[in-house]
Amino acid sequence: MEGQLYKWHGYISGWTQKYFVLQNGSICYYNTKSERDKNQPAKETLNMGLCEIVVDPHSPAQWELRMPVESKVWHLRTESTPERHQWIKALGSAKACLLDTSSLGSFSRSTSVESSSRLLSYDQNLVADDQQGPSSLNGSIHFEPIKENLDTANDSGNGSMNNLLLTSDTSSFVNVNNTDEENNMSQLSNQCEKTIENIRQLQQCLEGQHSSTHIDERIQQVESAVAALSDLMTDCKQMLAEPMDSTDRGQEIDDGIPSEHSEPDHQNLDQSSPPSSDEKSRELSTFFTSCVTDFGDVMSGLVKSENQPLIPTELFLDACQCYMEFFERFAGTLMGPLKTDIQGNIDKITKVINSVPGYKYLQDILSKEIVANQHTGPDTGTQALLWLTRGLRVMCHFLNNCLSEDSDTRGDTSTSLVSSYTKFLAKHHNWMVQRLFKMGLKMIPSFENFKVSMIGEANLQALKASGDTHWEQTAEKAVIEQGLVYSSNMGKVTSLIHDVYQQYNIEV
Ligand SMILES: CCCCCCCCCCCCC/C=C/[C@@H](O)[C@H](CO[C@@H]1O[C@H](CO)[C@@H](O)[C@H](O)[C@H]1O)NC(=O)CCCCCCCCCCCCCCCCC
């Protein structure tokens, strides 16, 4: 297949018409048809076997060809949707042929079956797209590169589902057994990974010395990936919410887990003295009580001195290490860059204190490095502790915003986090990191999911099974009360560290 298409060439050139030729599993383009007729070399070529085709239902004539291995993205456009349909069908077939034959090599037969079934489902989606206009279920359609196809084929679902925990009410999973939904979830999972990969590439780009045009491209990639992800998340949330209505409640009872409305299991009740609601919520284990060392322990370990209390370095690092578990509970890849950064700072401080003796208290790190004028480099203990503390302040403020009775944003994870980020971190970030955060902040889990993550699915199921008819209130109470205790101690510790930095005129 060949013909004219518009290709995006950046903000200066915009959409430019080029002559595209799809043959032998590759697509290339020339400036004009006459260049092609004169057998001049093509401007650029992509191997379809290594490309993803990404269709955006919100832009009916537009699509992208992405080649992750070379970090290339072609934004393409036709005059009309049917024309796009033709091109994408041809591109999809070229890709499927490659998967079935030339690229198969040692790949198993199931891979080609997988690829054809994906092609089929893609075709159906596309037809639906053409007939009904943009469908909310078809956020974007991907043909993954060969290796990713294999990953997906081998994935029984659990790995992909983990990403979804980020946004979904996990209890709904019991009732989900539908191919469309699985497709959507699989797309969501792929898109999550893709978004993170784009963010990672942008980060690399920021750390390196690439030209600003390159960075712009990367930002554009991240933005479109986040937009696609956000659409998919909305779709999946809707799909997962639906089956919980009326008819499906029976499933919960069949599984032995009483629903909110079912009668308590009397055999499970302690006849003599049923635990009160307060006791139950205190006993319920959450992230906040599961830390082997928390910031309360740091406060208990403070050592009195003339000016201000000394903060024991090891206790503090242990509490920070346990705090990392907070991010693990969200199971999605969204938190990846944050976790890396926080863990990096814990490791940097650990390295400093292990290098020579004499860093028993956090104050020692600053005093020694500042005296030696070695406190400004990115790997210094002073900088690592500074950034670690900034993150802790965001977390502490977020928990208060989200959990405290006095807060205007109680129960609203998104607004709570935006306000905490704006107050404590945004001013320390350049505009590009701010943009990344702003995009990430749009995707954070709801309060409902936050509570589930803090309690953990197993604990929650055990609570439901215990016959507590008010298990939802018990669970919420536990998260709120324990979370506020945790953040109160965290706040006390960060406030002490803040004072230490203030002594040296360093803004936390
Ligand atoms: C919290 C969820 C929001 C999701 C946002 C995800 C999008 C993130 C995209 C980019 C992340 C990049 C993170 C890294 C940023 C760094 O550039 C920055 C500076 O690094 C420091 O540089 C120093 C100089 O080189 C160096 O010395 C130092 O070692 C290095 O760290 N780092 C930071 O800004 C620190 C970030 C810490 C952020 C902590 C946030 C804690 C948030 C807690 C609340 C989470 C609530 C979760 C949501 C729960 C949902 C209901």
Automatic annotation (TrEMBL):
SUPFAM superfamilies in the record: Glycolipid transfer protein, GLTP, PH domain-like
SMART domains assigned: PH
Record region (Disordered): 242-283
GO cellular component: cytosol; Golgi apparatus; membrane
Superkingdom, natural source: Eukaryota
Gene3D superfamilies associated with the record: Glycolipid transfer protein, Pleckstrin-homology domain (PH domain)/Phosphotyrosine-binding domain (PTB)
Family matches, as InterPro entries: GLTP_sf, Glycolipid_transfer_prot_dom, PH-like_dom_sf, PH_domain
Keyword terms, alphabetized: Coiled coil, Transport
Coiled-coil boundaries: 178-205
PH domain: residues covered: 1-96
Sample GO molecular function, one term: ceramide 1-phosphate binding
UniProt subcellular location: Golgi apparatus, trans-Golgi network membrane
Biased composition (Basic and acidic residues): 246-268
Pfam families (alphabetical): GLTP, PH
PANTHER family: GLYCOLIPID TRANSFER PROTEIN-RELATED, PLECKSTRIN HOMOLOGY DOMAIN-CONTAINING FAMILY A MEMBER 8
Record protein name field: Pleckstrin homology domain-containing family A member 8
Organism field: Phallusia mammillata
Gene this chain is encoded by: Plekha8-001
